[in-house]
Design goal:
Blueprint lengths: L22 H32 L9 H26 L4 H7 L1 H34 L3 H11 L3 H18 L1 H4 L4 H24 L9 H32 L1 E10 L2 E8 L12 E6 L9 E4 L5 E2 L6 E8 L3 H5 L8 E8 L11 E7 L3 H10 L7 E7 L8 H11 L1 E7 L13 H5 L4 H4 L6 E6 L2 H13 L7 E4 L4
Helix pairs in contact: 1-2, 1-3, 2-4, 2-9, 3-4, 4-5, 4-6, 5-6, 6-8
The structure holds flavin-adenine dinucleotide.
Length: 481
């Protein structure tokens, strides 16, 4: 048990009363922001096509060869716009992160992978057919002549090969066969793919010729995307690491294979790392510094003074080689951080009532959420699931918090049912016919936070839906990439 961590926030900001009833309005504003961002994303594709229409591109349809070329140009513009959107979704821009969450942004990013590749391939093939027909060449000879004779075109061919490599290694079935570092290294080639695709966009064809406003628009979009990536993925993490000066203060075993890692640092009041959000951590010790680990806070940051000196805590389970090594971290190890990210926090609340369901190491961000998210006594239910009491990590702290804050707490331990694989409950509860709403009768009118192994979480979400919980009340933190 670890009771020395105290909430950093003053009691009223935990919002026993202050936030009550205001979640709906905040939630509506967030949904509106999400709608606006989605509209802006699709409008950018429309704008790319409009650039070409405004340049009289549709006149190309007067011949068959011209039609192929015209379709090829439209496919290229739309494909490139989707690639830029994908980069923006992966840039960890706070507006996007706080509106849809890091995982939803990445999910959308992944969904755009195949369509953008298909459009870019179509671009190459249609242009080769169109130009070839105009010059009396077959598409393959035309492609060779483009490579050899047209400046910057060979770079475009390299670019498409790189895009294929990135998309193929990102397909779930392929990705799972390789270590994260391999996938990450290949994924970095996206930047090379974009860089090698740019020269021919500005040097070949008239659409982005010097002096055109289309050229300025396209340059502005490309530069803004690059600047967002540089700022949020490179500069911000470096600045945050220097600003907060995090250092490991102690590593405390919690259960077999699970440790609390406590870090002290500066200006934690500027960190905005509240309950349930996660950071990407790098422990700057030999052999570890190049491992970026996403871990959620398992307690609210504890502040010692008004200058923001204080403590942070994460709880880590040895789910792989890298995380197992963290149990041996020495006090004094410096820590680099990126974040905070995600909306597995009060930011996602839409109702006054809240139900938190966690299993295994997924329990730990719920502990931080329980500590800080506003609710009136009686309006929160916490359900912890593990094979044994020992697997209910931080269970004693959660018990104390639940008592202090007036939350109802259930410990559900035991093996899962071998017969009923749709159940997230232990065998005893499954055979008694229990469902989520038996533990949380008001669940249909609550926000439901779920964190735990993927298959188990899917079953909880399914049970919640069956109990009448709508999609926008469901909040699920994935611990996988
Ligand atoms: C949003 C989020 C929050 C998480 N919070 C916690 C937590 O509070 N406590 C906890 O114990 N675990 C948490 N995890 C899971 C944890 O990040 C992984 O179990 C851990 O990084 C595995 O590292 P490894 O080196 O032991 O595993 P390996 O499989 O050997 O991983 C090798 C490399 O892949 C990286 N990697 C592995 N898993 C992930 C991942 N999910 N996302 C990105 N990179 C990854 C590692 O950092 C490492 O660099 C969280 C995951 C996510 C996505």
């Amino acid at each position: 048990m670890n009771t020395h961590l105290l909430p950093a926030l003053a009691a009223d900001s935990r919002g026993q009363d202050s936030s009550r009833g205001s979640f709906k309005a905040r939630h509506r504003r967030r949904l509106l922001r999400a709608d606006l961002l989605t509209t802006a994303a699709w409008a950018s594709v429309a704008a790319a096509v409009a650039l070409w229409l405004a340049d009289g591109g549709a006149t190309g349809f007067s011949t068959i060869a011209g039609s192929f070329t015209a379709l090829g140009i439209v496919a290229g513009l739309a494909g490139m716009d989707l690639v830029l959107l994908m980069l923006l979704l992966a840039a960890r821009i706070p507006l996007i992160d706080q509106t849809v969450g890091h995982d939803r942004a990445l999910e959308f990013h992944r969904k755009l992978g195949k369509p953008s590749l298909y459009l870019l391939l179509a671009h190459g093939i249609l242009i080769a057919i169109g130009y070839g027909m105009a010059e009396g060449l077959d598409p393959v000879s035309e492609a060779v002549s483009l490579w050899v004779l047209v400046p910057d075109m060979w770079l475009a061919f390299v670019s498409i090969a790189l895009f294929i490599a990135v998309v193929v290694t990102s397909l779930v079935a392929v990705r799972r066969r390789f270590p994260y570092e391999f996938w990450y290294a290949v994924h970095l080639l996206t930047y090379a793919a974009v860089a090698t695709s740019l020269p021919h966009q500005f040097s070949v064809g008239g659409l982005f010729a010097e002096g055109t406003w289309q050229r300025w628009y396209w340059l502005a979009v490309c530069i803004a995307t690059g600047a967002a990536l540089l700022h949020y993925r490179v500069l911000e993490p470096i600045i945050a690491t220097f600003r907060h000066q995090l250092t490991v203060s102690r590593v405390v075993p919690v259960a077999p294979g699970v440790v609390n890692i406590e870090m002290h640092g500066l200006r934690l009041n500027e960190l905005a790392g509240t309950g349930g959000r996660f950071f990407i951590w790098r422990f700057l010790a030999q052999g570890l510094w190049w491992h970026p680990h996403p871990f959620s806070l398992s307690a609210e940051p504890l502040q010692f003074d008004a200058a923001g000196r204080g403590l942070l805590r994460i709880t880590v389970r040895n789910l792989g080689k890298g995380s197992a090594q963290l149990a041996g971290l020495q006090p004094g190890t410096k820590v680099a951080l990126e974040g905070p990210y995600g909306i597995f926090s009060t930011a996602a609340r839409s109702r006054d009532k809240v139900v938190m369901v966690g299993a295994g190491i997924g329990i730990t961000p719920l502990r931080a959420l329980l500590e800080s998210t506003p609710f009136a006594p009686g309006n929160a239910t916490v359900i912890l699931r593990g094979r044994s009491d020992q697997e209910l990590y931080l269970g004693q702290e959660i018990l104390e918090l639940a008592r202090e804050r007036g939350a109802t707490l259930f410990h559900l331990t035991g093996q899962r049912s071998a017969r009923n694989t749709d159940s997230w409950l232990p065998e005893s509860a499954t055979s008694a016919g229990h469902r989520l709403k038996d533990y949380a009768p008001d669940v249909a009118d609550a926000d439901v936070y779920v964190c735990g192994p993927a298959a188990w979480a899917r079953n909880v979400l399914q049970d919640a839906r069956a109990a009448g919980v709508k999609e926008d009340q469901l909040h699920y933190e994935r611990f996988d990439w």
